[in-house]
């Protein structure tokens, strides 16, 4: 299999911008809906329901809108795509940086929308073996949903599949299914409902990498044939 072509600078910039903007809006939805939920109710279960539904709705809208340009919004998904030959590693690195920067921008904007400090480091410790296993499961499942749709030729369903899985993951995983290193980093910047303490973030990211690697192996086994990158216009 030949190596994927490196994108020309202008095209790379356009796609990186889409990744930055999309990840920013995604994190803004995650953080902002968490703040709004805690302002409206003291019921933690209802807060999580509001947070998960808002995140799922944002994912559907963002993927449908930006998929013709680039709509991974997740360094693990981008890395798996590179490992499968869908994008060059150089381009994947650029996208990952854009995703992390976009996530931080989204967290800062969400803080400011609710009259909070632009940056307030989270004090929400999220740790323990169960949480770490939850992140492996969450990320592995996300990789299966994304690349199962791509490699079976059903890219038009990706927005709904990904959003549905993440909404469900809020509830069936112990970690509430972060499944995204860019989002994990961004959530350290907010001391709100969705925040993750900086000391907890490295283990989240490590478990996401483990889940992504396991997902890659399973994708290769279940869907051995490659297909074109779905974000390309």
TrEMBL record:
Domain of life of the source: Bacteria
Residues that span the membrane, as ranges: 20-38, 58-80, 92-114, 129-150, 203-223
Family, per entry: Belongs to the MIP/aquaporin (TC 1.A.8) family.
Protein's name according to its UniProt entry: Glycerol uptake transporter protein
Leader peptide range in chain numbering: none
Localization, UniProt: Membrane
Keywords: Membrane, Transmembrane, Transmembrane helix, Transport
Provenance organism: Nocardioides phosphati
InterPro entries tied to this protein: Aquaporin-like (IPR023271), Aquaporin_transptr (IPR034294), MIP (IPR000425)
Membrane topology: Multi-pass membrane protein
